[in-house]
Structure formats: C-alpha cells, structure tokens
Design a protein that fits this description.
By secondary structure, the chain is mainly α. The protein folds into 2 domains: 100 residues, TerB-like; 164 residues, no CATH class. It is built from 13 helices and no strands.
Length: 287
C-alpha cells in the first residue's frame, strides 16, 4: 500500500459511513480515525465529492494499488458500517457492492473451508473479538481498559438486533452469569502453555513480555468471541436459557475461538497497528 491509496481509502470510508443515508457520531469517529491514520492534511474536497454523489465505489476500488490496500478498504468499511451496531440492510448492500468492486469473493470472516458465508452478526462478533485482541497488544498498558466496555456494547447491540430492550444492568447480568473476568483469568494458565510459540510471530519485538501479551490477546479474543455468540443464542431464544446452558455454550465457543485465533493473528496485529485509542475511547463514553 502506498500514498496514492490514501484518498480512495478515505473516500470509501466516507461512503461506508453514508451507506444507510445518515452518518452518526460513532461512524464519524471511525471515519476520522481512518483520516488520522492516512495523515491526510485536507479531506474537504473528498467530503464534498462524497456529499454530492460524485464518487463511485467501483472507480475508487480501481485506484487501489494492491491486495493490502483492498483488504484495508474492506476492513475499514466493515468496521464503520458496524460502528453504531450490526450493519443494517443498506449497509450490507454497500459492503456487498464494495466486495465485488474489490474482487473479494467472500466475507473476511469466512474462515472455515466449506462453511456458508457468515451472517452479519457472525461478522460483527468476529470483528469485535479481533478488536479486543488488538487492544491487548498495544504498548499503552491502559488500552485494555476499553475491553469490558466494548464487550458490554457488543452484547447490547446483539440484543437490539433480536428486538430486545435492554438496560445496562441486564447486559452486565449476562456477563456475570458467564463469569467474565474470572473465566478469563482461569484461561491464562492453559493459554500460557500454548501461546509461547505464537508470541514471537505475532508480536515481533514488542515489549511487556511477548508471551504474556500474546496470552492476553488470545484470552480477550476467545472471551469476546464466545460472549458474542452466547448472547446471540440467548437473545434469539428469548432469554430462556439456563445458566448451565449459557456456560456450556460459552465453553463451546471458547474452544471454537481457539481454532480460529491462528487464522486471524495477522488481522489482530494489523488492527493494533492502525488503532486510534483516543478515538476509540471517545466512542465508548457513556457505556
């Protein structure tokens, strides 16, 4: 990816934010994060072109220089479309158009050979798990403070998708039933024995003890992934699952996450390299 990719990447991000006809504060913050990463001094002309409908997805995609830029464009658009909750019909249509223009034949989240394409909630949960894993490997030791609020917001948004009207206490009750925090601590001794060989490849020369940081990334990824899928089933079934059922599902999805983690290590590292922690924390205010 080179500097000529910056303008089309920013324009695609702006189009993603407007895909459903409105840009809310969370989507705008996500676009601002893209602009900051690109280091663009002036985006007013791009914004004007987007506002008047003067830019087409296919034309912008054709300007991207390589596969890295195309993957960055799709992942950025995906994050923006999910910034205010799981993508709606208009946003999903935009993402499909973008995938076609970029030559990406299946969602990034389709990780299992022969598996059907992931649904919007599957994709959303995976991206949230990647995000929390990335927070663990940031050099800023305060970054992991954002993990629990992100998990709470994810559960709330999943509940909304199932037509649930939730308050913060109800969301926290579900996390409490799963022992979030305690469960993560219990995983550490197991994961530490497995992750040492992964740490060097995942983290290179980052400080804080590569194996321990990789452990944190693995645990946060697995916990968030499992939590999201448990919440999906819990709310899909009208909150009728018992605590025993919830815990069984949680364990099952943590094991599934462990098989997926090696396939998304590079995405986690790339996400950590592109995160704007200040913007992310600002978007979590009030949770």
């Amino acid at each position: 990816m080179n500097t000529t990719d910056h303008a089309p990447l920013i324009a695609i991000a702006m189009l993603a934010a407007r895909a459903d006809g409105a840009t809310d504060s969370a989507e705008q913050a996500a676009v601002n994060a893209v602009v900051t990463r690109m280091g663009s001094p002036d985006v007013s002309r791009l914004a004007e072109q987007v506002a008047r409908g003067g830019l087409r997805v296919a034309d912008l995609a054709a300007k991207l220089s390589d596969d890295e830029a195309r993957q960055t464009a799709y992942q950025g658009a995906l994050a923006i479309c999910n910034a205010d909750g799981p993508a709606n019909a208009a946003e999903l249509a935009f993402l499909e158009e973008l995938r076609d223009a970029l030559g990406i034949t299946a969602p990034v989240a389709e990780l299992h050979t022969g598996a059907p394409p992931a649904g919007p909630l599957d994709e959303f949960i995976l991206q949230q798990a990647i995000l929390t894993g990335a927070l663990e490997i940031l050099p800023d030791q305060l970054a992991n403070i954002a993990i629990l609020p992100l998990q709470l917001r994810m559960v709330y948004q999943i509940g909304q998708q199932h037509g649930m009207r939730l308050d913060a206490a109800q969301v926290k009750d579900l996390l409490g039933a799963l022992g979030i925090g305690v469960a993560a601590q219990g995983l550490e001794s197991v994961v530490m024995g497995l992750v040492g060989g992964l740490a060097g490849g995942l983290l290179g020369g980052l400080g804080r003890g590569a194996a321990r940081v990789a452990t944190g990334a693995t645990i946060s990824f697995a916990t968030t992934y499992a939590l999201g899928h448990v919440a999906d089933q819990y709310y899909a079934q009208g909150r009728s699952l018992s605590r025993a059922d919830l815990m069984a599902l949680f364990e099952r999805f943590k094991k599934e996450a462990a098989t997926i983690f090696p396939q998304v290590q590079n995405q986690i590292q790339q996400k950590a390299g592109s995160l704007n922690l200040q913007s992310l924390m600002a978007g979590l205010k009030g949770i």
